[in-house]
Amino acid sequence: MAETQRSPQRYRQTGDRWLPVLLVVFALGDLHTELQLLWDHFTFTALLFAIRGHALAVIVLIISPSLWRRYGASRGIRSSEP
Fold it and tell me: What is the DSSP string of 32-77?
């Protein structure tokens, strides 16, 4: 019997699915105060300050759809391709 090699991209661990969710939760936690201030009194200056002061959190929120496609639930399912 020929043994098939499993590529790491084809078989993801189940822990990888929680990576995008965890990153989004941390990003929203970081932006929590800024979002409250923007909700109460929106100004473009406050928006620019929030983006500039929390650049990593904003970038994580922007790229979260891409992270979800890469590490999401559909990646944990084995492909039937040989």
Answer: HHHHHHHHHS--HHHHHHHHHHTHHHHHHHHHHHHHHHHHSGGGGS
Tens of pLDDT, residue by residue over 43-73, are 999 999 999 999 999 999 999 999 888 887 6
Per cent of the chain over pLDDT 90 is 55
- Report how far apart, in Å, the C-alpha atoms of 69 and of each of 6, 26, 52, 81 are: 20, 19, 27, 20
Q: Calculate what percentage of the chain has a pLDDT beyond 70.
A: 70
Interior/surface letters 48-75, b for 16+ CB within 10 angstroms, e for the rest: eebeeebeebbebbeeeeeebeebbeeb
